[in-house]
Amino acid sequence: MTKVLIFLAAVGFCGCGRFNSAGATAIEATSSEVYKTVGKDKLNLYIFAPDKVKADELRPAIVFFFGGGWSTGSPKQFETQARYFASRGMVAITVDYRVRTRHNAKVTDCVADARSAVRWVRANSKRLGIDPDRIAASGGSAGGHLAASTAFIDEFDEVSEDKKVSAEPNALILFNPALILAPLPGHSLVVSGAQLKPEFLGAEASRLSPGHHVQSGGPPTIIFHGRADATVPYQASEIFTDVMKSKGNSCTLYGYADQGHGFFNQDPWRSRTLIEADEFLGSLGWIEGKPTLKDGG
Q: Is residue 121 a part of any domain in this protein?
C-alpha cells in the first residue's frame, strides 16, 4: 500500500512557466491551423515540419499539450521541444486548448479538446505527411494529464466528431504528469485541492483520472518526474507505472533527485529529458541515429 498526498493549489499547478492569457501569438511555427471551433472560439495547433521530406513520405508526429493547471498556459511552452523533434525528422505540433482563464473551461472540456486534436492530426495525416500509426502525445503537468487522457479516457469526446478516426496516440511522453486524481483501489491515496472538485473538473475526479482507466494494449510510455515535486508527487507516477505494467503495457519512469515541479523547462534538465525522449522514440523505430543534443549536466 502506498500513501500519497496530492495537493493542487487553486491557481498554480503549472510546470510551464508564466504565460499571459493571449495564447501563442509569439510562436513562429511552419504553419498553424484551426483544429476545432467551439462557439466563437477557434482553437489552433502549431505545426513544426521537418526539413527535406520526400514526396509522399510519412513521418512520425508528436503532439504537445502545455501545463497550467487547466487554467492558464500557452502552447509556446513546448516550442523548444517541438523544434528539436522537427530537426530529428518528426512532424511536431503544439496545441492550444480551452482553459479556465480564457474560456471558463472545465477539465472535461480540456480533455475533449485534447482528444479532438489527436483525432484531427490523424484525420489529416496524409495531407500533413504524418504516419497515422506513429503519433505520440506529450505534455507537462496538466498537459501530461491531457496526453495520458487521450490514450485512456474517451467519455468526453465531442459528439459531432467521427469516432471512426481514433483519438488514441501510439506513444506517450509525459513530464511531471497528473495521472491519479482520486483514490485508486489497491493504494492508499489522500487527494485534496480545489482543482480536484467536480465544480472545477466538470465531473467526478475518478472519471478524469488516467490511472483509473488504464487498459491492456496501451501505448508505450515514458515519464519524467522530479522526486522532490511538491505539486504532483513522484509517487503518483510510480503507482501509474505499476498499474501500466500490471496491464501488460510498457512504461518507463525516470526520477530526478532533488528536482521539483517543472524541472524539465530549463537546462540541463530540458536537454537531458529530450535526449532520453529521443532514445525512447529511437527504441520504437520512429527516429534514427543518436540524439543531436549534448547533455549539459
A: yes
Q: Is residue 294, in this structure, part of any structural domain at all?
A: no
Residues whose CB falls within 8 Å of the CB of residue 118, separated by 6 or more in sequence, listed in order: 63, 135, 137, 150, 167, 168, 169
Residue type at position 26: A
**Per-residue pLDDT tens over the stretch 91-111:** 999 999 999 999 999 999 999
Cβ–Cβ under 8 Å, residues 107 and 149: no
Q: Which amino acid is at 65?
A: F
C-alpha cell at 297: 549536466
Q: CATH number of the domain at 218, please.
A: 3.40.50.1820
Q: Which of 175, 176, 179 is nearest to 277 (CA)?
A: 175
Percent of the chain with pLDDT over 90: 77
Best CA proximity match to 44, nearest among 72, 58, 25, 61: 25
Q: What is the mean pLDDT of residues 248-275?
A: 94
Residue 292 lies in a domain: no
Buried b (16+ CB within 10 A) or exposed e, 236-253: bbbbbbbbbeeeebebeb
pLDDT tens, 145-188? 999 999 999 999 999 999 999 999 999 999 999 999 998 877 76
Q: What is the mean pLDDT of residues 86-94?
A: 96
